[in-house]
Design goal:
single chain; 8-stranded mixed β-sheet; 4-stranded antiparallel β-sheet; 15 helices; globular
């Protein structure tokens, strides 16, 4: 299975052999519109300096999906034989040819070795150029754009590379990528860049609440009104005591200023698991991350309290839970900052972070974390759950491809990566949909998928509910209370091989009756989510009170807990962790091990969205986990 996003072919075009000195220039990337909040201000000064950075193409990257399938498909002779970090780095490091080709081209254009520098990690080539030089080199024109906050950003509409250079360069910055970090807003304590604003209240995917509850209903007959751990154990038949906790690990990712309160964890566990009272997660601080207490309330504590209260309860006190707390209170963090910390090779991959998207450490704003950027300082746990997401359209195609490939690398190393699929059905975060020119609008009609949910190398988790007036012994439906399970089809990523049979069955038998211009109707794109779990009416202790909480933010850590217990069973008999699970769960061997969801839908963008039907669907995926069946099947694998 290969990562073949449609944009790669469009961006690179057909490559032909040519004399480098006569090689024609081709458009490498083009931007179609100026994003919301920005406007053209002026032509950039010819004498100004532009820090050009060329991201070098990685060796063997087009085959990363094939390598991942070898260790992840249950019929493969190499199933479970995961790679080391060193093996991953050696396989995908940029080739000498790529480095030499780009350096030679730069030298031909006046940038000799004193000006064109290969970074120590071999991922980038950096050039300090004047605007006039950069425009001549890239056959473009640089402009200055102004943001409504007063911030300025340098960008161009498109840029060109010689045909013989294109195959060695993924992208160049700064160019078309309108992803500048926005300086602090008036009255705000944090910069507001697209990627690294993920932990900020109101940004990305976050849980919803209907307010405080006065009476706890901790009996199975009330699970349609309040979800507590006993409901989840009954729904998914999770009755298990860990046997190999010393060999196992489970990680929850949070982004500052989101933070848990120990008093909330204790309040929750005193009601639902007394032996966890006083127990804290194992904190791993990334780039100055800490459990801040300066700001409290649902929008600061709701996510982290929810994730940890249920994750810790479901894996029991015997299994420690790791908390990856990323970013300080000033700079924040992006998914890439987290990835840097758990895998040092990512700091070298595609040049590491995009400085226009990711937080830069030491903190350039002052008053924040002043230590070095964490790179390879934290070991990845066997399962990692993240309850945050972007809209796919928030980020450039090359940016998402780079990050998606890193998730594949984690899978190669035996890590299971889960992401919530979103809470607005076929719409994007906040209920925004796309318009024909690519901008966002609450009145838009084009479906707006989430990322990383659309990455084919992670497991995307949607949401279900115990239907009103139903019990845990009856089938669940897709979540239609407060939130709607995010799902649909990617506009960037191709359908992976492991998913083709399931998705093609859906498209053949339940083809969505919508115009092809509002959803990706090609039949060749990645469908999501992959699985689902309950996401409605969770009882969560937040700031000293119990509240009802909703969202795929509930579903992902619950699924992660169940898969962590599957890992425990395998580790207890000397087998490897389950790693990247998608090729396995979509295989015929695992047919029927998930509870199929056939009721409900995920409305959005002025439509009813998709509908939950027999088999896989873009609302609840393959369905909800059945723990005994999953354990039995996975124990049969090598």
């Amino acid at each position: 299975m290969r990562l073949l996003p449609c944009f790669v072919a469009l961006a690179l075009g057909l490559l032909a052999s040519a004399d480098p000195f006569l090689s024609p220039y081709r458009v490498h990337e083009r931007r179609g519109h100026v994003p919301a909040g920005w406007s053209y201000d002026r032509k950039h000064d010819n004498a100004a300096i532009v820090p050009l950075r060329f991201a070098l193409k990685q060796s063997n990257i087009d085959a990363i999906g094939d390598y991942l399938t070898e260790v992840s498909h249950p019929e493969s002779a190499k199933y479970g034989k995961h790679w080391t970090a060193g093996e991953v780095f050696r396989k995908f490091s940029p080739s000498d040819k790529s480095i030499g080709t780009v350096l030679a081209w730069l030298e031909e254009n006046g940038f000799d070795s004193s000006r064109a520098k290969l970074t120590r990690n071999r991922g980038w080539i950096e050039v300090q150029a004047t605007v006039e030089e950069a425009e001549r080199l890239l056959q473009t024109e640089y402009h200055v754009y102004g943001h409504e906050t007063g911030q300025e950003h340098v960008a161009c509409d498109s840029y060109h590379l010689p045909e013989h250079v294109q195959s060695h360069v993924d992208f160049v910055t700064p160019t078309v990528h309108f992803d500048a970090k926005i300086s602090k807003r008036s009255g705000s304590s944090s910069p507001d860049g697209t990627a690294r604003s993920v932990g900020q209240p109101g940004h990305g995917t976050y849980p919803k609440t209907t307010g405080e509850i006065q009476t706890l209903l901790n009996q199975l007959e009330y699970c349609d009104q309040q979800i507590t751990p006993v409901c989840l154990r009954a729904l998914y038949e999770l009755v298990y005591e860990p046997l190999a906790a010393d060999k196992n690990s489970y990680g929850i990712v949070e982004y500052t200023p989101q933070a848990y309160l120990q008093t909330d964890l204790d309040m929750f566990q005193s009601n639902f698991s007394e032996n966890l009272v006083g127990v804290a997660p194992k904190m791993v601080s990334i780039d100055g991350g800490y459990a801040q207490t300066e700001y409290t309330g649902f929008e600061y504590n709701g996510e982290s309290d929810l994730d940890l209260e249920y994750a810790m309860n479901l894996v029991t006190a015997a299994q420690p839970v790791t908390l990856y707390q990323a970013g300080d209170m000033v700079e924040g963090a992006s998914f890439n900052n987290f990835l840097d910390a758990i895998d040092g090779t990512y700091c070298t991959f595609e040049g590491g972070d995009d400085p226009t998207q990711d937080a830069i450490y030491p903190d350039p704003y002052g008053g924040g974390y002043e230590g070095p950027e964490d790179c390879g300082t934290a070991a990845p746990t066997n399962v990692i759950s993240t309850s945050y997401s972007y809209n796919e359209a928030d980020l450039t195609p090359f940016y998402t491809a780079r990050q998606c490939a890193e998730y594949a690398k984690l899978g190669l190393m035996g890590v299971t990566v889960l992401y919530s699929s979103g809470d607005y059905g076929v719409a994007g975060n906040g209920g925004y949909c796309l318009t024909p020119n690519g901008t966002y609008s609450l009145n838009g009609t084009i479906f707006n998928p989430s990322f990383p949910g659309t990455c084919p190398y992670i497991t995307s988790v949607g949401a279900t509910q115990v239907n009103p007036n139903s019990t845990v012994y009856e089938p669940e439906g897709a979540c239609e209370q407060v939130i709607y399970s995010g799902g649909g089809f990617s506009n960037y990523f191709a359908m992976p091989d492991y998913q083709k049979t399931a998705v093609e069955y859906y498209l053949t038998n339940y083809y969505p009756q919508y115009p092809p211009d509002i959803w990706n109707a090609s039949g060749t794109s990645r469908g999501f989510p992959d699985i689902a779990a309950n996401g409605a009416n969770y009882v969560v202790a937040i700031d000293g009170a119990f509240e009802l909480v909703y969202g795929t933010s509930c579903s992902s850590p619950v699924s992660g807990s169940i898969l962590t217990m599957v890992n425990d069973a395998r580790l207890a008999v000397g087998k490897s962790p389950i790693g990247f699970i998608n090729p396995t769960i979509y295989s015929s061997d695992f047919a029927g091990v998930f509870n199929d969801i056939t009721m409900g839908g995920n409305q959005g963008c002025g439509t009813a969205g998709y509908t939950a039907v027999p088999g896989w669907d873009p609302v609840t995926g393959l369905g909800t986990p059945n723990f005994p069946k999953l354990v039995a099947k996975w124990l049969l694998l090598p």
